[in-house]
């Protein structure tokens, strides 16, 4: 990638400040401190004066923002960038496990520390820093550019989703996007001896769906001194075991087939030939991928039993026992089919099944587009054997809600992170590498320019 002239000192200072503003979202909006989002908006306006004086700025919902940079050619469809302002809370009891306090924004010269450093205030600021820098250079876009900032992305499938409100408003106005970029895959060097030696950029062209189901099993209540053979909790445990032992079928969707085919085409070994045509050995590959929890998530709807409750006291037989199961839906599975799957497994129990909340799996975006090729070209410049590959994002993003205004939705963050950082979002010691400021901002500057070409 070609690197731009970027004010890295300004960005580092601003990311530290952004992290210090604890924009935590909660399932119950009454628990959210909305003054923090107002503080964050005021900070953005102060930190990026050219952006907020040049672009049209509109507030949507409780704390959403639409930034609109008007282009010179109305015949061109606009491009869009998504980011969320909210972060997840710190797990109680882990505050002292952090090397630096979680909302300190501490800069030790190598990392900037704190909740939201990776997920996703660094990404958000890279977008706005890129626009600010282009404005300072005197750049004027041909296409309209939109930046849409949500405020409760971390509440997956929430009933009052900010991104859904923003997308609906844009749809009502008849705006159709050429392409939209959101958070997702990253960029990495892969050095697998005799297999692949390349710089690979992972671009999510689809994401899995989401569902939380509550299962409640009834049983005989009463005193624990004369229990039945199986209490309600025991029956529930039996049903949970049955559900876990009957996972969803493993199968290949088009994003995963495309990923294998793309990677295989850049490999020189016989394995590359096999991966280049994954359809031939789909059943063998699917079976192999089921053996690892990470790869299994790409080829099947996942089942995760996460919560349970039963009796209010140790010496009381529960009259009912409940659990919550989280599913991540593969394309082709639906909320209705997951419900049917559970009902079939629970038919021999006195059980009720309730969908708490959920959303369907996303559509699959095409890869033969200017936007996808532009991402590829940016990372290929100046590097040998660098390429982009589509893949399936197993997590959830805001982009799902924008299908009503765009078919070309790409989930990608322009950072190359060491493996030890990939598990820190939502966890302890989340931190952003300072050496990723330059490539991060450079990417968005180049993407805006190239999409005008």
UniProtKB/TrEMBL annotation:
Record's keyword terms, sorted: Hydrolase, Metal-binding, Protease, Zinc
KW DNA-binding (keyword) present: no
Domain of life: Bacteria
Peptidase M20 dimerisation domain: residues covered: 205-349
Pfam family, one: Peptidase_M20
Transmembrane segment boundaries: none
SUPFAM superfamilies assigned to the protein according to its UniProt record, in alphabetical order: Bacterial exopeptidase dimerisation domain, Zn-dependent exopeptidases
UniProt keyword Endoplasmic reticulum, yes or no: no
Gene3D superfamilies: 1.10.150.900, 3.30.70.360, Zn peptidases
Similarity section: Belongs to the peptidase M20A family.
Protein's recorded name: M20/M25/M40 family metallo-hydrolase
Native source species: Roseburia lenta
């Amino acid at each position: 990638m070609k690197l731009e002239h970027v004010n890295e000192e300004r960005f580092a200072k601003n990311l530290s400040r952004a992290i210090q503003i604890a924009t935590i979202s909660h399932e119950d909006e009454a628990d959210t401190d909305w003054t923090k989002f107002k503080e964050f908006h005021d900070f953005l306006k102060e930190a990026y004066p050219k952006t907020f004086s040049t672009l049209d700025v509109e507030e949507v919902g409780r704390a959403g923002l639409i930034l609109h940079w008007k282009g010179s050619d109305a015949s061109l469809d606009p491009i869009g960038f998504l980011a969320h302002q909210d972060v997840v809370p710190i797990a109680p009891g882990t505050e002292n496990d952090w090397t630096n306090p979680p909302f300190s924004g501490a800069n030790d010269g190598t990392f900037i520390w704190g909740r939201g450093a990776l997920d996703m205030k660094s990404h958000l600021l890279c977008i706005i820093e890129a626009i600010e820098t282009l404005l300072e250079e005197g750049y004027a876009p041909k296409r309209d550019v939109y930046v849409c900032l949500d405020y409760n992305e971390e509440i997956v499938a929430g009933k009052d989703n900010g991104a859904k409100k923003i997308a609906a408003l844009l749809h009502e106005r008849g705006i159709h996007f050429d392409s939209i970029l959101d958070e997702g895959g990253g960029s990495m060097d892969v050095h697998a001896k005799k297999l692949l030696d390349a710089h690979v950029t992972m671009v999510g062209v689809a994401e899995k769906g989401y569902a939380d189901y509550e299962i409640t099993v009834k049983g005989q209540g009463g005193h624990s001194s004369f229990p039945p053979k199986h209490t309600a909790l025991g029956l529930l445990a039996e049903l949970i075991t049955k559900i876990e032992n009957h996972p969803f079928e493993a199968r290949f969707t088009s994003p995963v087939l495309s990923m294998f085919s793309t990677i295989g085409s850049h490999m020189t070994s016989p394995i590359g030939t096999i991966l280049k045509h994954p359809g031939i050995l789909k059943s063998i590959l699917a079976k192999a991928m089921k053996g690892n929890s990470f790869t299994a998530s790409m080829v099947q709807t996942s089942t995760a039993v996460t919560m349970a409750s039963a009796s209010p006291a140790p010496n009381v037989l529960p009259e009912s026992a409940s659990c919550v199961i989280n599913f991540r839906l593969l394309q082709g599975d639906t909320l209705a089919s997951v419900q049917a799957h559970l009902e079939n497994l629970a038919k021999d129990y006195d059980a009720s099944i309730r969908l708490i909340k959920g959303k369907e799996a996303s559509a699959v975006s095409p890869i033969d587009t200017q936007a996808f090729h532009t991402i590829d070209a940016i990372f290929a410049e100046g590097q040998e054997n660098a390429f982009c590959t589509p893949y399936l994002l197993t997590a959830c993003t805001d982009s799902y809600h924008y299908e009503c205004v765009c078919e070309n939705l790409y989930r990608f963050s322009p950072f190359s992170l060491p493996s030890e950082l990939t598990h820190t979002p939502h966890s302890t010691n989340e931190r952003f590498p300072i050496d990723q400021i330059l490539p991060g901002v450079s990417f968005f500057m180049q993407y805006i320019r190239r999409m005008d070409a």
